[in-house]
């Protein structure tokens, strides 16, 4: 048994029912066992409340499972600096609470395997003191409680604790107490649970359907084209297995040249509808219409980050700022001006947001492959430059005041989401990229008017989407191992990707 563990965790979360493992699969099975035990006893207590038991309360044993590993100074190697994840920079005890191991099983097994292989040390698995909030376990959808039961629920059951729900680890503001564990992952179990529930609320689909490659758009028309593409791929029957749409409506192939749909479409679309083209390995494509504005962009990526996707890419419309640009031109972002305001407290403005080379090259190659552009034509139709992201929906009414900013920043286009999504990618260590399509040129008098851009939209929306899908195919084909960049790591980075 791990003899020095009590001293290492003194003053922090205590761990019970501790077991050591040198096999990642066995460790994950134990994590699943502990989580299922906690879930069962919490649900049992909740059932007692619904049946009228006035003493029903959250059980003390209903806590998150915990995984940890002790790394000595002799285990630290300078060669680890070449890695993007799966290692730590300093000696000590590292640990984290975990949740939904049946959902994250493959991810947990991969991360634990890397630690076991690299350090030749066992991991410890046990039960933490962090209670699982009832809201993250129970199903309230078909339950009607009276006023007395609601009061009992409020007083006797564990609820999400905002003092534990934060992004201190992600933001590099977390400072562990003396002799307390260092973080092994970017998110605690409770923080992950919080986002899983929010994802379902905003997108209308269950987290289990989300794929490792994510396309984000600010324009609804793209989704119609995505559904068409998905259905064609399903009919081919080679790569993808199902299309999941809001309401967890599942479409799959049911014989040659036919599709079968299970489920009922919701009467109203959710705020940010998600569509998932699934692959058996999880490396399919999730497409989300996030709506307009940096608040939406931050909101959805805050929650998507807990899924640890391989990358997210922004496909949207933008205003061109240069006279020699035309409607339908593509803008590949290599820099961002963050005039959005929503991330200033989490990622200060003095932090640069660099392009991710692997994503940039894939997007560029996809544009050239899909459009057939070559030479000077490619240079003019595909512009690489800085995107200016604003939080002002009617910035055109202040263009005289901000024209100077456009000029000084060398910006070539303006939108309301790209810099936010890219900055959150840097913040959450999720590779990112941006390819926009010019829909208007307001400062040169080409503003959006009713009916003037219908042909443009019909022609470009499909092509733009196909470019994004081709970029993901290229990234997947070239291998995701090269995608996760060291430039996204800080000094004291958790080992889990």
Index terms:
single chain, 5-stranded mixed sheet, 5-stranded mixed β-barrel, Rossmann fold, 497 residues, 2 domains, amp nucleosidase, domain 1
Strand order across the biggest sheet? 1-4-2-3-5
Helix content: 25-40%
Roughly how many Å apart are the termini?
A: 28 Å
Q: H/E element string? A: HEHEEHEHEHEHEEEEEHEEHHEHEHEH
Poorly predicted ranges:
6-11
- The dominant shape is globular
Mind telling me the C-alpha Rg? 24 Å
Instruction: Give a short account of the largest sheet.
Output: 5 strands, mixed
Number of domains: 2
What is the percentage of strand-forming residues? Answer: 15-25%
The total count of strands amounts to: 16
CATH topology of the largest domain: Rossmann fold
Number of helices: 12
Structure notes:
There is one protein chain. The chain contains twelve helices and 16 strands. Helix 5 crosses helix 7 and helix 7 runs parallel beside helix 11. The two termini are 28 Å apart. Helix 10 links the parallel strand 14 and strand 15. The protein has 497 residues and is α/β, with parallel strands linked by helices. The protein is globular, with a radius of gyration of 24 Å. About 1% of the residues have low confidence. Strands 1-4-2-3-5 form a five-stranded mixed sheet. The protein folds into two domains: 191 residues, amp nucleosidase, domain 1; 285 residues, 3-Layer(aba) Sandwich (Rossmann fold).
